[in-house]
Give the backbone structure.
Amino acid sequence: MRSLMRRVLLDTRYTLIGFPTAVIGFVLLLPGFAAGIGTSLVWIGVPILAGTLLIARGFADAERGWLSDVLKRPPVRPRYKRPPEGAGRFRRLANPITSGQSWLDLLHGILNFPLAIVSFVLTVVFWAVPVTALTYPLWGLVTAQIPGNQELPEVIGLGSGYAIGCVFYVSLGLVALILMPFVVRASALTRAALGRALLTGVAELQERIDDLAQGRAAAVSAEANALRKLERDIHDGPQQRLVSLAMELSRAQRQMQRDPEAAQATISSAITATRETLDELRALSRGIAPPILSDRGLAPALAALAGRCTVPVDLDVQATERYEAAVENAVYFVVAESLTNVAKHSRATQCTIQLSRTGNTLLLTMGDDGVGGAHVAKGHGLAGLADRLRAVDGELVVQSPEGGPTVIVAEVPCG
């Protein structure tokens, strides 16, 4: 009930305050626009039009602040085009004319006027009717006390007409009171829809484009880091083993004629080295695209990771359905790298992993009782995880104070 009342009051404030603001804006903007266009051929109209657009920007900024209360969204202000470096005085003066958002601000200031009138009238009417109708019985008693008004004895004596009037007006007031939140909300949203489309739509689109660009850059960065790590692991592991294996086989070939027993021992050693190299290559391939993940999904793949970890892992997977390959790979990569960090650096004795789904979001929560100190700054292992999640519009939050414990929370859209 309290939230509904607060919502009604916010919408009422928006429609009531917005009306005089819209009137003032309309009175200033429309003549300014007409005068600027009409005198633009003789250059006098350029500063008039630029000034009008700046006034429209001021009204637009005020409207954006009010929109955040009505739409329950943080205020979004678009980036206005700035004059180029070294521009002259006239170019700077005329700069608002070159910004597309400035013209949208002006259009909003003009189109907002009729909508503000309608929303203002509806709000006033649906506030006035309940208040007036519900207090009708009190008004009847008060007016009957006015000297010279002799209707009160008749009202008290007969009562039928007065009672019928009270029932009618109270019923009307109750109906209007029930409808009032919906009418006021609809009035506010109608105005707010115009404001959002003209004043924040371009900014929201620009933010989305920026997010996509950042996600793409993060994906490229994460892929490059993964390739560099893979190259380093191959160079330090299987490649060195293969070089050693080639040398062992060459020695066995030389020993074959003069010392068959030594050659046999060398070949046995080479076979052992081959198996170790194959095991290391399999481990590397699991970090790239584990077959169990593509074949059976996240739950078995995470269970396999938990089983291989040297630290005991308490695994709770509540989201067992299949998701897009990019989503599953991102979650798997986060768990794999985090468990590697736990085993190498945390000195933990216990680790917990929980994967659940809330709406269209996968929520991964990992914790350990280690020494802490983990963070996502550049140059640390978790920075790559943040980039990998950003590539799929996900987020990574790390809480790891010195001394522990560490909690890692990853959110990945899956809808």
Remarks:
- The beta strands are 313-317, 351-358, 361-368, 395-399, 406-413.
